[in-house]
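Box S2. Input/output pair 1.
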Amino acid sequence: MRILITNNTLNARAGTEMYVRDLALSLKDKGITAICYSPKLGRVADELRDHEIEAISDLQQLTHKPDLIHAHHFTASASAFFALPQTPAVFVCHGLIPWSETPLIKFQQIKKFIAVDQAGRDRLINDLNISTKEIAIIQNGVDLKRFHLSNNNDPSRNKRALVFSNQAQDASILPLANACVANGIQLDVIGSGVGKPIDRPERILGEYGLVFAKGRAAIEAMACGCNVILADYGKWGGAVTPQNWLKLRTLNFGLRAIDRKLDENDISNEISNIKWEQGKQLAGLVVEHASLASMTEQLIDEYQKILSNKWTPKADILNEVVSYTQALAPLLYERDEYATRLYQETKMRLGNEATSAGLLVQAMVTLRDGSDQILVTRLAEQILKLQPGHPIALEVIEQTEEST
């Protein structure tokens, strides 16, 4: 069996990119050939190739026709559908928010829709007006060979917490940090949003007793024996416990379970009530219910059901091309309007910065021969932030350095 997996990118180590990587490796272990396609290749594509899995950005590079398309994102999947009009497909919806997570139209090649949680199922129903019978929920699984219970039994790990998210921003981190400090806990942060991406999170997760995360990241942390408080996108959703685990699993530990405004006092109280020994129970639940092997087996079962029924495409494939481009056009107009608005806002901001820099230069020159040289230096530093390389500001900085 040959499966073509599509994704919008195979570059940064983010959610669906990691899903593709793990699924392709898991299929290979079961003797199934995976070919990965994305218009944008990068680090994840290189990693796939290191494991002798084909990763391409041009569908004309296909050396063998796939038996089935495992599609993500209409930006990549439509190209595969048009290039391989006689190949059946499954389409997997991974998220409630990202704009590319459902097809723009109901392609006839899609013989099964798959969602990773109830929110994704509801989005498929609302976006495409399809019935629940056409959708299977196959939840995320993690590679238990990589993410597993840590041998770190040092109780000091419970004095360390981690924000594990690519969406983490300073404004949302502060309440979490304050809540941790109130409990005598040090907070670290990893993720591309704060400029700290990590290739092998499994190497460090076992060092932490508590992790703030959602979705797949939350499951990976629990697999390593961490306690987890669901949090992301500037909200939080409480601690995961053995008692609420199965309920939260149906929500993929995702956004529908993260609906509270960040309040450091509430979060601090939640931390103080954590039963730290439950981390091992959470790891056991991941092993029982959320393994990559189980997820792969469920997907293979769907693949085989589709391939066991011979399918002949209708003769109106060109009508799908027309329908797709018509559905795509408003999105392109919307993005063009957004780009125009962003350009105008940037132009205005740059104009304001130029005016501010001019006023700062006037103030700096006026005060330059005065007694408050610290203020003059601070003005020079601010000018260089607004206008890098400004000659007078550079001269002031150099004189300050020489005098010290």
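Box S3. Input/output pair 2.
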Amino acid sequence: MFIIDDLLLRQVGISIPGLDLIWIFEQIRDFAYREMYDPEKIRNRIKENRLLYEFEEIDREEYDRTNTELMRQLKLAEMGQEMNLGVRMDILGAR
């Protein structure tokens, strides 16, 4: 019922951010993206991986495998931020 109300109200241009169910879902999605694609957190994990290797906590094979995966994640995070920023700017300019 709330979803139908939200959709009908949005079609007429009425949106109450605190009560809007779609707005809540968007906030949850944005939070998940920030947590998942935070370049600073990924960089910290890369540094941690390097330290583990230097202190011989992990072997070269594991270091390479983890580093490759973290570098891939960092690239995706940086691309995602650029795309997300572009989308946000479009939305702000449209209002």
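Caption for Box S3: The chain has two domains: 1-36, 38-95. Confidence is low (pLDDT under 50) at residues 88-95.
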